[in-house]
Every structure is written in C-alpha cells, then in structure tokens.
Amino acid sequence: GENVEQHPSTLSVQEGDSAVIKCTYSDSASNYFPWYKQELGKRPQLIIDIRSNVGEKKDQRIAVTLNKTAKHFSLHITETQPEDSAVYFCAASRRSGYSTLTFGKGTMLLVSP
Amino acid sequence: SQTIHQWPATLVQPVGSPLSLECTVEGTSNPNLYWYRQAAGRGLQLLFYSVGIGQISSEVPQNLSASRPQDRQFILSSKKLLLSDSGFYLCAWSVGQLYYGYTFGSGTRLTVV
Q1: CB contact under 8 A, B99 and A101
Q2: B residues 22-41 lying closer than 8 A (beta carbon) to A
C-alpha cells in the first residue's frame, strides 16, 4: 500500500517568513494530494489539493507543488502569520473508487510574532 | 447543509471496560464514513471505513471494531479497552470517491486509565 513520509515534524518560523513542508510517497499510481490543517484541539480541514496533471497550484498565501518523477510534493506558505500555527498533514491517494487517503505524520508549524 | 456529529467529546475509561463512540451525518445520503485515530496529537491512522450499511473495511487489526447500522450512523466499539487505545478519535465522511473531500467530526478524546 501507499506510504507517505512528511518532513519536518516541527517547524518554527518568524512571522512574515516563508514555510515549506515536504512529503514523499511510495505508490507511483497515486495522483491526488491534499493538505489538511489542524489547529490545536480542532478537527483537520482541507486547505488545498493538487492532482497529478498539475505541477503547481496556488491559493493566496499557500501553494502546493508536485514532482511526480521524484514522487514528492510540498506545501509552501508565504508571509506567515501567527494564525498559521497548526499541524499540517499531507496525504496521497489514487483517484479510484476504492482508494482511501494515506496521511503523513504531520508537521507542527509554529509562527512566532 | 451537511453536518457531522460525534460524541462524546471527552471520555475517560478504565482498562478492560467497553467502548462505544458514535458518529452521525446529516444532510447527505449514502456517505462514505471513516474512523481515524490520532495518537499523542500527531498522525492520522485510518482504522475503519464504510461505503454502505453493514459494509466495514478494517485497515489495522486491533482491539476495536466498527459497525454501520444505519446509512448515516457509524459506531466504533471495543469490548475491553487497553491503555494503548488512548487517543483522539475522529470520524469523517465523504461522498462519491473514497479519497476525496473528507469532512472530519470534532473528535473524541479518549483516555484509558
């Protein structure tokens, strides 16, 4: 089955800096890669996703890039703000009827004012 | 609109006691339902998922079981809890494909003492 590795496990940045979280996956047939954000004590929520026919996708201050050859994808957050502090999870799946999401172990992002 | 209800929010149970966590979804029909566990505040581990009434797929052999007695109801159970069952249990739902558009419940924090 799919295996998703996520790095780093913890990331501390100053407000205004950029943050990058990286994930690798093992199943070359995976073609759907969402990112979820979980604030302390709350439920994970989808913030952005990318499909394998797209190399990059942006939504305001967040962007996701995908390198299918290397089997890795990354989340980029620019101009970080304290409210960006949370645990971020990457995930991967095949876009097929019976494939569930496989999540990475998460990255705790701390943005200091 | 669709909503997901999960209860209780917090639970403290002694080792060896039974467990029943319930999740219900409103505003949609024939959802895919999932149980995830998050141990020590990190990592989302898929425990069970269901594509229909009475259909349960288990991802990890363990001390837990799941049932889906009604279309929008998903129950996580254990006959005898272990210390290692402590964690944050999240129910989620999606419609259509199993990999896409997860909406998570607010979670149950279970502490086994």
Answers
A1: yes
A2: 34, 41
Between CA A45 and CA A31 the distance in angstroms is 20
DSSP calls for B48-108:
EEEEETTEEEESS-SS-EEEEEETTEEEEEESS--GGG-EEEEEEEESSSTTS--EE---E
| Cβ contacts of A45 on chain B, cutoff 8 Å | 104
For the segment A9-37, what is each residue's pLDDT rounded down to a tens digit?
Answer: 999 999 999 999 999 999 998 989 999 99
Contacts of B105 in chain A (CB under 8 A): 43
Exposure of B19 in the CB half-sphere (CA atoms within 13 A): 32
Residues 68-97 of A with CB under 8 A from B: 87, 89, 93-97
Q: Answer yes or no: is pLDDT of A107 > 80.
A: yes
For B41-93, write each residue's pLDDT tens digit: 568 889 999 999 999 998 876 789 999 999 999 999 999 999 999 999 999 99
Side chain identity at B2, as an amino acid letter? Q
